[in-house]
Write a structure and sequence with these properties.
- This protein is an alpha+beta fold and about 100 residues long.
- It has a domain of about 70 residues.
- Helix 1 runs antiparallel to helix 2.
- The radius of gyration is 20 Å and the shape is flat.
Length: about 100
């Protein structure tokens, strides 16, 4: 029996519905803090791998992104604290769009 290969269309984009729902302030804070921690750690590992063996490389771009994410984490903390005090539910949605470039 002979198998005939058929051309397949290569997918050039992906959409991931990451977050969609209503959450308490504590639940929302947990989700956002965990996402931010993962992103911060990602950049720290990237910075470490770039600077490994070259202690003079400051990697300012990666450090700037880490600082930006740390600042966003603090802003989120204040926001969720305010929502907790008001005993409000929060609606959160997050979709990640990925596209192959080139």
């Amino acid at each position: 029996m002979e198998t005939i290969a058929t051309p397949t269309l290569m997918k050039t984009s992906q959409k991931i519905n990451l977050i969609d729902g209503d959450f308490t302030a504590s639940e929302a804070a947990d989700i956002i803090n965990d996402v931010l921690k993962v992103k911060i750690n990602f950049h720290k590992i990237q910075r470490l791998s770039i600077t490994e063996g070259n202690s003079k490389n400051k990697c300012e771009f990666d450090s700037a992104r880490i600082n930006e994410l740390l600042n966003e984490q603090e802003i989120a903390k204040q926001f969720f604290s305010q929502a907790r005090m008001q005993v409000k539910k929060l609606k959160m949605t997050s979709t990640i769009h990925i596209t192959i470039e080139g």
